[in-house]
Specification:
Layout (H helix, E strand, L loop, with lengths): L1 E9 L2 E3 L13 E3 L8 E2 L9 E3 L6 H12 L3 E7 L5 E7 L9
Antiparallel strand pairs: 1-2, 1-4, 1-6, 3-5, 6-7
Length: about 100
């Protein structure tokens, strides 16, 4: 799988970066943006981390819930092609984050 582009969709609008969809401190999370020139090769049985953060013990459930609520309305669209150059698209929503809010 060769990723050509990541698109983040929130409220019907498309963005090339997840940070435009979030109101979190940009230094508090790691992210992978989906610029036009992006080309990432995903080997079989591996993965691509698009967003990652960790919370300190003192931040508490409120901070975690806030991050989950901001991630939930975002849909990720991945445009990619295989080794035979067949183009494909996968789209996944993030509504499952709301299952874990308190």
């Amino acid at each position: 799988m060769i990723v050509d582009r990541l698109t983040f969709i929130k409220n019907g609008k498309s963005y090339t970066t997840i940070e435009t969809c979030l109101q979190l401190d940009r230094r508090s999370y790691a992210r992978l943006d989906g610029y036009e020139s992006m080309r990432k090769v995903i080997l079989p049985n591996s993965f691509l981390t698009v967003f990652e953060t960790s919370f300190e013990a003192q931040e508490g459930e409120a901070a975690i819930d806030q991050a989950r609520q901001q991630l939930a309305p975002i849909t990720l669209r991945v445009d990619f092609h295989d080794i035979y150059d067949n183009p494909m698209t996968i789209q996944r929503d993030s509504h499952w984050f709301l299952r874990y809010t308190s």
